[in-house]
Each structure stands twice: as C-alpha cells, then as structure tokens.
Amino acid sequence: MNAIARTGQKPVSKNLHLSKFLTFSVYDEPAKLEYSIQQQVTAIMNKVAKVTIFFWIMKIVSTTLGEMAGDFISMSLGLGYYVAFAVTVMILIVLLFFQIQSDRYYPVFYWAAIIATTTAGTEVSDLMDRSLGLGYGMGSLILVACLFSVLAFWYYRDRDLSVYPILRKDAEITYWLAIVFSNSLGTAFGDFLTSNLGLSYIQGALVTASVIGVVIAIHYLTKLSDVLLFWLAFIFTRPFGATFGDFLTKPIKDGGLSLSRGYACAIAFIMLAIILFFSSLQDKKARYPVER
Questions:
Q1: For residue 2, is pLDDT > 70?
Q2: CB-CB neighbours of 270 under 10 Å
Q3: Is 0.90 surpassed by the pTM of this model?
Q4: What does the domain layout of the chain look like in residue ranges?
C-alpha cells in the first residue's frame, strides 16, 4: 500500500470495497504478502486495458469498425464532414466522461471509448483533407506535432509514459488525448498511402502490417523502450485497420469489395464483442484467482 502512496497514485474510492477482490494466503511470507496485495490493489484501481495479444486484436477490429462507422455517418447518412465531426466528437466526449469518471477498468466503457476515438479520428482526417483542403500529408504532420506535444507534456509532468497501469485521473486524461491524436494520425497516414501514393487498399494494409512486424521484431530482438514501441504499434495498427475497412466497403472500381457499411459495421461489432467476452474472462481469472 505504501508503495502506491509514494508514487502519488490516487487513493482508493470510498465506494470501492477492496477486501472482496483481494486474494492471498495467510501462509505467505510478509514481504511476498505485501507485494501480492500491492499488485492486486493496483490491478483493481487501474483504469485501462492491459496490453496483451487480445488488446492488439481488439485494437485492429475497433479501428476497422471506427473507419467504417465514420464513413457511414458522413457518407452513407449524407451528413457531411462538418456535421459528422460534431456528432462523433460529442459521442466521444460523452463516452470519455463515463470512462474517466468510473472507479476502475470496465471493458465496455474502455472499448466503447476506443471505438469513438477511431470514429472521430476518421472524421478529423477527412475534415482536414476534404473540407479544410490541407491534404493528408499536411494533416499527418499537424497530428504528429499534436501527439508529440501531448507526450512531451505527459513526460514533463510525470517523468514516465507508461500506459499500464493508469491510476490517476490526470494521467488518464493525458492518455486519452494521446490516443485521440494517435488514432487521427493513423487515419491520415492510411489515407495518405492510398490517396497520395496511389496504393491499393490491400497494398496500404500490407505496408502498415510490415511496419507493425518490424515493431514486433524490435520488441523481441532489442532493448528499445516498450513505451516507444507501444505508441508506434498503436499508431500503425490504426491505418492497418482503416485500410482494411476501406477495402471491405469501397466500390469495386476503387479496389474495394463494395460491402454495405451498415452490414460491415455490424459484423465488426459482433467480432469485437466476442473477442472482448473471452478477453474479459481471461482477465478476470488472472486478477481474481481461486483461493489456495
């Protein structure tokens, strides 16, 4: 407990009864017992998803869903980029409010917020290119500057950019700002590959998949910062999912499969829900093991 207090993490909510979540043996050595309690309290108080293979699978599916949902709102519903931007940003603000105000990690809140950031990111990218006339290249540079500014501020304040666990509210707000800009950047970069460089949607997906593969290789073969690699992977999984979403829904003449955006969104949502269900079961077993 003292270790958590020394790091300045937020205190336990009065409404959160930790005793019913903690699992340990009275036969554990004192030092081991204290460490076990600290680990479990940190896991309970944490507000964000743990980075596992399930995390990355759900991230890719959610970005595919967000790309298609953004196009559905602006194009299929005919609302245009300005109205679609306003709608998706308002939805994002509401979902982030519930996520940030919650007392611990709730998978539904967290992943709903992730989908909202990817959907809003789609509208930000399209707005900057098509409505403001900045182009995807310039839009990408602006979003890179915004993301670096958020990460620089985060590091200046905390001297740490760790993405798990997130316990303090101010750290969580900064975390979500970084995610919004990184998802918007990933969208703009993916559109830059297909619109500016003339790559097909499959080629764009292969390029971003190759970058992700390099990041994975660096993770296992070098000692480069895991935090840096996380943000690189987070950024590039966005255009991978986005280009795949475009491949599913864009017209055949443009290199897509011309699937209905509504049906494609429903399929992606069901896939995400199934993966989230099994991920939550595994996470629950890991957090609250059966008593010995």
A1: no
A2: 10
A3: no
A4: 2-10+18-42, 49-284
